[in-house]
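hey so u asked for the seq, here:
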Amino acid sequence: VGPAIIEKRVIIYQGKEYNMEFQDFLRQYIPEMDSVNITSSSTVQIGLSIPAGRSREILKVGGGQKSYTTFLKIMQELQEENSVFDYEIQYRSIYEERWEIGSRSDVPIEL
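ran it, structure tokens below
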């Protein structure tokens, strides 16, 4: 109920935590991303308020079929069950309820 206010965002890769934007992480740590054309991206900064019932498009890939296919392959590999990749976003409501979403769950988890 009400907006989601971002309190924490972290990318976990190969046992290390990275407090950075997803696009920046991909460009810096996934070499195959050099052939992917990202046409737009959004930030998920601490303190960001996302209105109730809305979502945030983190990345948009363009540049043709090869770029799109390469990106899908990268994301599939990152999301495999035994992957060394995870992300967590913690947020709160205006009523101080705290939740977490991540790459391993389809639904928010109450904290």
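The chain has two helices and eight strands. Residues 4-110 form one domain.
lmk if thats what u needed
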